[in-house]
Amino acid sequence: MVVGIKDAFKLMGIVIVSLCAVLVCTIFLNYQLDMSQIENQIQPGPQQMLYDAQKSTANMVTVLSGGCLLATSVIMMIFYIKHYIDTHKKELGILKALGCSRMQIAINFWVFGSSIFLGTALGFGGGYLLAPMFYTFNNEGDLIPDVELTFHPELVVYMVVLPTLAFGILAILYACRKLKTPVNHLLNDLPHEKSRKHSRDKESSKSFLADLKSSALRSHKTLTFFVIFASFCFSAMTQMSFSMDELASKMMSIMVMMIGLTLAFTTLYMAITTVISGNKKSIAIMRTFGYSQKECTGALLGCYRPMAYLGFVIGTIYQYALLKIAVDVVFAGMEGVPEYSFDWTAFFISLAVFAVFYDILMYVYSKKIKKISVKEIMME
Predict the structure, then answer these.
(1) Three-state secondary structure along 83-130?
(2) Taking a C-beta distance cutoff of 8 angstroms, is the pair 121, 20 a contact?
């Protein structure tokens, strides 16, 4: 099995998501470990309340942000492995026909899992680069003793080594499971799915474009998740960054904004490019039969628009609930903590920017659809 440059480039999605996850977790976990060094200096009363609140914040951010991004990395890796197997069926079928076992072939998929190493290593390094600024901000006010930045070797194991091993093993096991497909199905590029007569009968009454839209959503459930997740990240992080300037610091505001935009662009780019590359034949046939560029774009990309705005709504609710809990529960009773209420200005600004960003992206990729020709597909 050979992973080409294009396949390796697609793995950058996993690298970026794991980088963001480890960067956030490194900063807050390291700070939490360093706070234990001043625990015996904390006095009962306001000091104890602030100390407990900061530790609770570190735990909450690590679990929610790190856990969410970790789950996304797993889904991305599984998607890439499935996509690779689906697009290299003949090569994999030949290997099985030559006598290679499923496990012998699956071991080569460790490459997909090892991509996590680059992301976690960069995230860990980036976390330590940003940590001094984070510590400086939290040490302001002299409410609790200053927390000194200390290097904790065990975090390298938890943040870099163990995720790399876990993802490598998961990639091999998932590939082994997917390679259960019979050799003749791989060699002849046949689907290995049970047909559903009821679904086919139901869809037969639909128009071609309506059927293509529902088929795109039904057959690409993972891509639908990525579209929802991309808009979720954009919505939650951009709106949260407006509040972070008042509740935390400009540094936190900028960091949250950059992570949100990076995740949103990466996942949305990956989803849309995969949809187009996986439907080139359909696009070429549609254009041959006289369907316009607008109809092609609407059938393949327009069906994801409601999903994108659904993700935006979920992200809005998520960021409001998260900040409300942080202010009203974690920092309850703390002096100087401003009251938090829903920021309608941030909501409308974020929504307007998202709408423009999404439509520009759709326009750019509609131009790519226009360039797809029957000759290009026939020569593949």
Answers:
(1) HHHHHCHHHHHHHHHCCCCHHHHHHHHHHHHHHHHHHHHHHHHHHHHH
(2) no
Q: What is the mean pLDDT of the chain?
A: 77
Q: Which of 5-9, 118-122, 210-214, 348-352 has the lowest mean pLDDT?
A: 5-9
Matching residue, tokens 């876990």: 166
Per the structure block, which two tokens stand in for 291? 């369907």
Helix, strand, or coil (residue 195): coil
Residue-wise pLDDT for 19-42, tens only, equals 888 888 898 889 888 888 887 887
List of residues 6+ apart from 380 with CB closer than 8 A: none
pLDDT tens profile 132-148 = 888 887 777 667 778 88
What is the structure's pLDDT at 201?
46
The total number of residues shown for the chain amounts to 380
| Whole-Å CA distances, 308 to 50, 224, 228, 242, 348 | 39, 9, 5, 21, 16
Q: Other C-beta atoms within 10 Å of 364: how many?
A: 10
Per DSSP, 158 falls in state I
Please state, in angstroms and rounded to a whole number, the distance separating the CA atoms of residues 304 and 288: 24
pTM of the full structure? 0.73
